[in-house]
Each structure stands twice: as C-alpha cells, then as structure tokens.
Amino acid sequence: MRTQMKKIRKPNSTKRKNDRKEAQKRLKEQTSLMMKHPKECCICKLSFERSEETVKTWTVTVREDRVHLTCPKCWSILTEALGAIEGSS
Ligand SMILES: [Zn+2]
Prior knowledge:
Elements: E1 2-3, H1 20-35, H2 52-57, E2 59-63, E3 66-70, H3 72-88
Parallel strand pairs: 1-2
Antiparallel strand pairs: 2-3
Bound molecules: zinc ion (ZN).
Zinc ion binds at residues 41, 43-44, 46, 71, 73-74.
C-alpha cells in the first residue's frame, strides 16, 4: 500500500508554528489512525480485502486527521482530476 501525501494540498494556508511537541503529537495521532484505517474505498465503498495485490495497488491518504483508503480505480480518477486542475492553473 502506498502512502500519498504530497499530491493533495491542504486548502487552508494557516501559518505553521514551529511547535515540535505539537508535530510529534500529530504524528503519533496519524500513526494510530493508520493502524485503524478504513476497510473500504472512501469513494465507491468497495471493500478492501488485504492481499499482495491490494496492498500494492490501493492508496492510503492522510488528510487533516482522517485516513482515506482509495481503490486503484478511484485513485486514477482522483489523480487525473488533480492533474487537470494543476495543469490548467
Ligand atoms: Zn473506489
């Protein structure tokens, strides 16, 4: 399973404080969220069945405090949409 964090930009541009404790806390929270990630595609609700194939092809994204699991089909649609947005700007 791949973790894609660079592609999706956070919409709000609040200033980041250099608070290491806060960052560590967030990292810890994200790690715990990763442990209990969803069991279905966040878009089409296709159930995720762990196998060598699905682990390679499904994508986990962490955005804000939520973990999203995306099946390959929906992920390709998403990345195409994002690419179109980035390309046009
Ligand atoms: Zn899907």
